From TrEMBL, chain A:
Keywords, alphabetical: Cell membrane, Membrane, Transmembrane, Transmembrane helix, Transport
Membrane topology, from the record: Multi-pass membrane protein
CDD domains the UniProt entry points to: TM_ABC_iron-siderophores_like
Principal location class: membrane
Subcellular location: Cell membrane
Organism: Aequorivita xiaoshiensis
Membrane-crossing residue ranges in chain numbering: 21-39, 45-63, 70-89, 101-120, 141-165, 191-218, 230-251, 263-285
GO biological process: cellular response to iron ion; response to zinc ion; transmembrane transport
Recorded family membership: Belongs to the ABC-3 integral membrane protein family.
Protein name (database record): Metal ABC transporter permease
A cellular component term, taken from the record's GO annotations: ATP-binding cassette (ABC) transporter complex
From TrEMBL, chain B:
Domain of life: Bacteria
Keyword Iron: no
Entries under CDD domains matching the protein: ABC_Metallic_Cations (cd03235)
Family: Belongs to the ABC transporter superfamily.
Positions of the ABC transporter domain: 7-239
Source organism (scientific name): Aequorivita xiaoshiensis
Protein name in UniProt: Metal ABC transporter ATP-binding protein
Keywords of this entry: ATP-binding, Nucleotide-binding, Transport
Amino acid sequence: MSISEYFNLLWTDYTLRTITLGTAVLGAICGMLGSFAVLRKQSLLGDAISHAALPGIAIAFLITGSKDTYILLLGALICGLIGTFWIRGITTKTHLKSDTALGLVLSLFFGFGMLLLTYIQKQPNANQAGLDKYLFGQAATLVESDVFIMIGVTGVCLIILLLFWKEFKIMLFDMDYTKTLGFNVRFIDSLITFFIVLAIVLGLQTVGVVLMSAMLLAPAAAARQWTNSLGTMVILAAIIGALAGIFGTAISATQNNLSTGPVIVLVAAVFVLFSFIFSPGRGILFREIRFRQNRNDLQLKKTLQFMYDIAKTHQNISHPHAIRILNNFQGFSKNSLRKMEEKEWITLKGQEWSLTNIGFEEAKNLYNQQLKDE
Amino acid sequence: MNEKLAISVDDLTVAYNYKPVLWDIDLEVPEGVLMAIVGPNGAGKSTLIKSILGIIKPIAGSISIFGKPYDKQRKLVAYVPQKGSVDWDFPTTALDVVLMGTYGSLGWIKRPGQKEKKAALEALEKVGMLSFKSRQISQLSGGQQQRIFLARALVQNASIYFMDEPFQGVDATTEIAIINILKELRKAGKTLVVVHHDLQTVPEYFDWVTFLNVKKIATGPVKDIFNDDNLTKTYGINYKVAVNK
Ligand SMILES: Nc1ncnc2c1ncn2[C@@H]1O[C@H](COP(=O)(O)OP(=O)(O)OP(=O)(O)O)[C@@H](O)[C@H]1O
Ligand SMILES: [Mg+2]
């Protein structure tokens, strides 16, 4: 099946449509919330929470004996929240840095989760297989009701975001200042964190414990490259997340059923790579181009300055001078003379140049301009 | 002197770990003064301001603003944090940061409207940053960022201003611009508490001073207490001799 066949099938094939919609919505909510995690410099938070959720799945299975997705994910949610409280507790009650706390909780919970999984696997019970799908996720198991829940959570999350937009923004930028204004930052913070945990738990079935944090971070990191406005960043991250979900699912479905979660994450990573290179404001490519342009521009202006100093010794500023006298000035070339003529700073005649009025004014303003830019 | 006390701090003790950073501080600041807090690095100047503003919970002590607890007087107080305390790469504009100064009076959920925007633009104008209003904040120089923080506090339209090193890293022109704004505020009857590092300019800029080094060394009018004795007690060296070297 080729990609275009796949997109045709999308209109007729119920299962494909469900899975694609599910991964798209998941990508969108992760992108939205991931923006907040990235801006709080808590990139590891998602990783810690998703790993912390693993023992929850195992314990939920051990207690209920059921493999029902919702029961297992409820276990994951509870365990993820406990992990978050521990992280919060460790950072406020001890002198450990937050990344240390995150790392601790991550490895502790994940280790415990793996231990439980191996224990479950050793049980003489035919029912136990398949829990390990939560490690890397299995998008194919998504059903319509899962997607409805995702859409519901995304909707509620969107309403909360719109409602508390101003509070989220100010807290992300300046926590201490927000406190002095009388806002309850614990409440705002808990609200964001709760939705991050919820989004992660929703993603476990599709993307899995190990790669979930990439779902959260990659769209946000890519979006940050393209904009300097928080609102645009959040919207863009949601769009990039959704696109990663859609194309990831398409690619995995058409290429011998490659595992969906990792492919989605790879597509998101391609978005990040592309953004880091090609974004006009912060991308590596345009920064290099701008740097060269600036350098060339400065070179021209330096030459102009030199000409100005010569020209202003004459009554008539447009008095022609030999090109030869520029020879002992660094940075001058035939090419730069031509460019200056294009800008109408000078006119060239034979082996002589003369400054125009425009060029004279430009040179005179060079210093003033620098002052103005300050 | 004005009878009314703007700020009164009683037996304030603060510790981050086991070691106290502020020890048993009593401080009374009369209304309408322009006060400098001076002391060496790590003396607890920022901590003192943060404790008064409720950002840090003290181990002991009480604080009142115009005779009432801080919680009830929030709207009378504005804060200019140390510039380095935030990430200036945050995706937002200068105007947007200044608008944040209006969030406190707006309260929860309500968004800033035309009135708030007008106030923010006026504050930008006052600090000479109006032409930078749409500039992404990471593309501002250090001195310009400092002015943006000042403008954000100005829109709060408070009675007491706490400023943590507003002159840090600014050039002479900006320093003069800022001190003129502070003096104007004092003329309008506001109280200003400013953490300041340049001892040379204290007598010129301020009329009140507090010496701090974990303990409060002295507090009072500059002309009475800004002397070698207190400087030596605070900085632990004979200040004048050290400077003259
Ligand atoms: N978050 C913190 N956790 C632990 N210790 C802290 C913390 N913040 C400050 N300290 C310590 O408290 C003491 C006082 O710090 P504070 O920032 O109040 O000093 P300061 O007088 O403002 O210094 P500076 O002139 O360098 O700004 C210092 O010894 C500092 O190391
Ligand atoms: Mg300080």
